[in-house]
Amino acid sequence: MALPWRFCTVWCVPLKNLCKNYAKPSVIFPQRAFFLAKNQVEWEKKPTQNKKRREEQFLLLCLAAAGVCAVLAFRFAVPLQAQTPQTLPDTKELAAYTQVELNTADADALCTLPGVGPRNAQAILDYRAQYGPFAQVEDAAQVPGITQAMVDSWAGQAYVR
């Protein structure tokens, strides 16, 4: 429901003028204006001293908290122990500790022997399937592609039961 145009002109304009000209706080409420002015003056004087004091207290409190944190960190920290650097084992030396049984080893196990790749491992498996198990390690030199020097380099790595 809209208000009629006359209502606005009759009431709104005089209220606007009244508020604009006569409703200043110092004119209507002189005591309140004095009170506000007095508090502003006191507010500007006292907080500078209080502010510095509070800033100093805050900084001291921060320093104390940082000190407590540092003391607790050093108190409960786990001490570092001297560690000797670990050396990784050489793969050639590791292969020396791996022993291969020539009569039961599969192609992957045979490939761990020096000079034996997938092709030579398959030749050993084929020879073993055709002629039976090896009686001794030196018999592996009869396999095509395997030399006596290769078999000699297997010393301590290959064995036959």
Quick take:
The chain is 61% helix and 2% strand.
Describe this structure in words.
The chain has helices at 5-22, 25-28, 30-76, 91-96, 107-110, 118-131, 148-153, and strands spanning 100-101, 158-159. It has 7 helices and 2 strands; from the N terminus they run H-H-H-H-E-H-H-H-E. It is 61% helix and 2% strand. It has 161 residues and is mainly α. Strands 1-2 form a two-stranded parallel ribbon. The protein is rod-shaped, with a radius of gyration of 50 Å. Residues 1-8 and 22-35 have low confidence and may be disordered. It starts with a helix and ends with a strand.
Classify the secondary structure makeup into a structural class.
Answer: mainly alpha
Global shape: rod-shaped
Number of helices: 7
Helix content: 55-70%
Biggest sheet, open or closed, and with what strands and sense? 2 strands, parallel
- Return residue spans where pLDDT drops below 50 for at least 5 consecutive residues: 1-8, 22-35
Overall pLDDT score: 75
The secondary-structure element order is HHHHEHHHE
Percent strand equals: under 5%
CA-CA gap between termini: 111 Å
Tell me the total number of β-strands. 2
Rg calculated over all Cα atoms: 50 Å
Spatially, the strands of the biggest sheet line up as: 1-2
